[in-house]
Request: fold
Amino acid sequence: MNSIHHPHHLHATNFHNHNHQINKNRVRMVDAYQDVKTSKTNRLGETLSNLLNIQKPYQKINPTPSTHSNWNVLNIHEDKANTPTMSPKEDISDRWRDIHGVQEWEGLLDPLHSLLRREIIKYGEFAQATYDALDFDSFSDYCGSCMYNSHKLFDKLGLSKSGYKVTKYIYAMSHIDMPQWLERSRLTYTWSKDSNWIGFMAVSDDEESRRIGRRDIVVSWRGTVTPSEWYENMQKKLEPIGYKDSKVEHGFLSIYTSKSDSTRYNKSSASEQVMKELKRLVDFYKTKGEEVSLTITGHSLGGALALLNAYESATNFPRLLISVISFAAPRVGNIAFRDELYQMGIKILRITVKQDLVPQMPGIVLNESLQKFNDFTGTLEWIYTHVGAELKLDVRSSPYLKRGFNFIGIHMLETYLHLVDGFVSTGSTFRSNAKRDVALVNKGSDMLIDELRIPTCWYQLAHKGLERNSYGRWERPKRDPEDIPSPIREEHKS
Reply:
């Protein structure tokens, strides 16, 4: 005997019964099926409506247990739509030394102190600005330059309330075969074939200086646009620096110190540009009797340059309080270099992500872990080592991020800032009251879960920079004169 099983537990009778009984049962089954089909259709419509957020304002989503976590994330994300993206600025004037590592951030990292979290994100956004403002269009006349004049940079990038003013742009070049971002333009004639905009210097205004307890000078360094670029071209060769046994990676040092009289923007090296502006600012504010600090930040390659910058700054300004807040930084030098940085009193905080490969380079095998064998090997001058305190994050801690390995997405600075904003402690879940806009994670990656419906790699110029002229034709517009790189203007400003 065969039977048909229906979701509502309606059963067909034996197919060997009389025909009129079979017909009755068929009619009943068709009616019941139509009722169930209508019910399923209604439920499907309600589910799609909820997913698309087109339900009425007073409707409440009641997730099923199997989708509770995703629904919870979606509800929290939707509830934040009308809230600020930054925590309120608190007065840290009596605690700024602790926040900048005078006690090596003891007791402030795990759990992460809210005041420190706020400051880390502030400097991280300065590092992110070096990416957001870079003209990376290979067909642009100004490929490799900053798209905006220094006076407009923060306004254009939504950092006008940061409390800092840009004072100097930094340009870099290299004498070795380095990543293609140094020679990316496809044009025969371009603004510069040798140099690229690699960062900026800024200083806190009067109001921000009162809040943070001193006049803060910031140097922000850009990394390469894709992490694989510098890794593929890295020389993986240690080179002496200073007068002791300190050695640093040859390629990083080349970018920091290279110069050439034949170039337009690197007649002086990035190192010399920064030191000249730093001396001007320190002398100016010291003359006014102000306490001055130097905070250096950068992401990836920018984090490596930040360490070199800190080393040189401490050499030239031994009484200046210097701290480095880096993101996804690779190893830069050997153990002697690390020890010399410590002796100089430089405070270094590295923010890393467990799944990111870049902080593990160079020296994936030959690194600081071998120091425990010093009794057998002696001092190892030829191995790479990390420096400073570490705030280690985990991609899996955020319910907003996709699982799986995405090398580029994990390494992106916006992913780091998202994780910092949600980190409480290694034993806690991602904080539900995190302020930073989750959509920023997908600016240049595909890291957010699909339920959030945030487009991937959405950060770009409208129409990819093309504009319609007066005749209705699409063309690349001319830059405003004040936004065109000018060595004369740069020299005048410095």
The chain is about 35% helix and 15% strand.
